[in-house]
Amino acid sequence: MEDKKIIELYVKRSEHAIVETQNKYSRMILGLTAKILHNRSDAEECENDTYLGCWNMIPPQLPLHLKAYVMKIARNLAIKRYEYLHAAKRDIDQCIPYEELNDYFASQIDFVDELAKRQMIESLNGFLEDLSAEARKVFLLRYWHFLPVKEIMAECGMSQSKVESMLFRTRKKLKMFMERSYYEYQCSKAVK
Q1: Could you tell me if 32 and 74 are in contact, meaning their C-beta atoms sit under 8 angstroms apart?
Q2: By CB neighbour count within 10 A (0-12 exposed, 13-18 middle, 19+ buried), where does 41 fall?
Q3: Where would a tag sit more exposed on the chain, N or C end, judged by fewer CB atoms within 10 A?
Q4: CA geometry: angle at 98 spanning 106 and 109, to 5°?
Q5: What is the longest distance spanned by two Cα atoms in the chain?
Q6: Which residues contact 73 (CB under 8 A, 6 or more apart)?
Q7: CA distance readout (Å), 31 to 28, 44, 102
Q8: pLDDT tens digits for 167-185?
Q9: Which residue has the higher pLDDT, 154 or 106?
Q10: CA–CA gap between residue 62 and residue 98 (Å, rounded)
């Protein structure tokens, strides 16, 4: 069934919307949540919570792209579940990829708190657009899709050292970008 029709079912409050969402996106949801949680039962719980989240949010929200909407809900639920399960444990081998970026954002906490969410999203989208297509793909596979380096190697046909160095260089560029954005923000704030 087409996404548009599934959204119409949600708007009509038809429980068939959940069935159709599950038929279409179950494998993708489980794949993503399992990569984050490394536990089948937790991944399945997040899948069920994803359908509930869709049911509760559509309407009033009407997503333009149902697949992206559903996957974002699943991803956020899995990250919250992961953080809950690992709150007291900090094993670097078990950290999910976005935790690798903490050092790059840590000094910008005030900036992130003060800057409007929309501006931040636009800035980061601009950063991603400025990357080469290859670097952007590797970065998104690691930090959005949570793929391990070995899977990125297979997906992109690259060596481990190339993937790791590309991720390192991109994180370094991101840090410089964030520092520059923070400086520009402080300057514009001082002028006002």
Answers
A1: yes
A2: exposed
A3: C
A4: 20
A5: 55
A6: 50, 53, 54, 57
A7: 5, 10, 25
A8: 999 999 988 888 887 777 6
A9: 154
A10: 28
